[in-house]
Amino acid sequence: MASPGILHVIEIGHDLGTFAVAATGQGLRLVLLRGLSPGELDATASREGLCPRMGGAGPAVVAARQIREYLDGHRRSFGLKLDLEGTDFQMRVWQALARVPYGRTVTYAQLARQAGRPGAARAAGSACGANPLPLVIPCHRVLASGGRIGGFGGGLSMKRALLALEKAGSPDPSD
């Protein structure tokens, strides 16, 4: 098993774009929706006291495989170890997000209620924006009030593509 002080990184090329996963020996730490920008990996690793290393080990390899299966339409859920850190409210929002079923959506207001803070839709939106594991913690499944598409770190065209992918659906090999 990899040392928890090392951040293993794997890039994933796909028709939707270039993605990257970063994991410690404890689990998946980061999913980047636009691949690695210059300095982003070093800045993230430095901020968290980790040493970045391109190439995979353990959780990074498993995460890259499962994310590719998801993007290819062959996976509906993830079975990954996570190395996730956030505030208490962020963690509750992310846990609520993780329970939103494949192919379904919720609003920011619904998400805030599920996280135990009715009326905190904007705070739930901020927690979605701080989500370090998009796709795995599916913030693309959150819509603004009235069903408007809302924002997404990977851009609105990617959000629409992910929602369309899930609407098309396919059997999950882990089911």
Features:
single chain; 175 residues; alpha/beta; four-stranded mixed beta sheet; two-stranded parallel sheet; 6 strands; globular; disordered C terminus
Can you give a write-up of this model?
The protein is α/β, with parallel strands linked by helices and 175 residues long. The chain has 6 helices and 6 strands, in the order E-E-E-H-E-H-H-E-H-H-E-H. The protein has helices at 40-47, 59-71, 88-98, 108-114, 121-129, 156-168, and strands at 6-14, 17-24, 27-32, 51-54, 106-107, 142-143. The strands form 2 sheets. The protein has a 4-stranded mixed β-sheet. The chain is globular, with a radius of gyration of 16 Å. 34% of the residues are buried.
Structure, briefly:
With 175 residues, the protein is of the alpha/beta class. The protein contains six helices and six strands; from the N terminus they run βββαβααβααβα.
**Structural class by helix and strand composition:** alpha/beta
Alpha plus pi helix count: 6
Helix-strand string? EEEHEHHEHHEH
Helical content (DSSP H or I, runs of 4+): 25-40%
Tell me the β content. Answer: 15-25%
Give the terminus-to-terminus CA distance. 27 Å
Main sheet attributes: strand count, strand direction, barrel closure: 4 strands, mixed
What is the count of β-strands? 6
Q: What average pLDDT do the residues reach?
A: 87
**Any low-confidence stretches, pLDDT <50, length ≥5?**
170-175
Gyration radius, in Å:
16 Å
Shape: globular
Strand order within the widest sheet? 3-2-1-4
